[in-house]
Amino acid sequence: MCGHGTDDLTERSRIPVTDVAVTSLPVVAYWVMKLILTPILRFLFRVRVEGLEHVPASGPAILASNHLSFSDSIFLPLVLRRRVTFVAKAEYFDDPKTAWFFRAVGQIPIRRDGGTASQGALDAATDVLQRGQLFGIYPEGTRSPDGRLYKGKTGIARLALGNGVPVVAVAMIGTDVAQPIGQVKPNFFTTITIRFSEPMDFSRYADRADDPMVLRQVTDEIMFELRRLSGQEYVHEYAKRKLAKEDPAEAMEPAPTPVLSGPPLPPEGEPAPQVAVGH
Predict the structure, then answer these.
(1) Is residue 279's pLDDT more than 70?
(2) Domains in the chain with CATH codes
(3) What is the mean pLDDT of the chain?
(4) Rounded distance, CA 16 to CA 267, Å?
(5) What CA–CA distance (Å, rounded) separates 175 from 10?
(6) Closest by alpha carbon to 36, among 15, 21, 66, 20?
(7) Fewer CB near the terminus (10 Å): N or C of the chain?
(8) Roughly what angle, to the nearest 10 degrees, separates helices 25-44 and 72-79?
């Protein structure tokens, strides 16, 4: 299901002129930052990209990635031809020393005050998708504490079904070696692989977008595909870290779903269940 062509970071990151809105400073800053960082990161790391042709050339789509390191949010945007937007906690934008960077790499602030965080994150993501753009999300809701792949939160299913958009699974491999959690200085000259799946089509569930069982099913299918792409061990429970609630992706998870309808994991060594994809 995944393409296996490999391209270097620069070749696969060329900027389409039509994506740049010269009247929008944040958009211009995004592409300027991309131009500056791409050759630097290409020199400092061995970046391999597989299946980039599966990312739609136009129109809205969700990029669902595993999350191993802070640097995931740097490497993923840099290998894409199109701009991708993430949500980030608003505190990053309160400090001028960091605000410019998070705006430049395509992140938008979300406040976690009160009980409106979940809806605020969903609204922000929906706005991005309705503008025909790419939205990036980490379904686990936080970085993996031990390199394994954890149970996904159903906010991603709500977004996909509510907006009728495809989901492309993205496996980040090696970013936890390049920059482990808690380590400020990266380990240079390590290999990082970014692997994209074909678009996953969930239109068959369009008339059941509010069904908790369907939301769980869709989320599990995405996580199974991430497992297949990344080769990670899957843990069917939510990831827990001391700072887990600081990740705004976690705010996109509604109340716990009591019923699990996703297909069971296969025995070790056997392939995960196949999911429907679009071409």
Answers:
(1) no
(2) 6-252 (3.40.1130)
(3) 79
(4) 44
(5) 18
(6) 15
(7) C
(8) 100
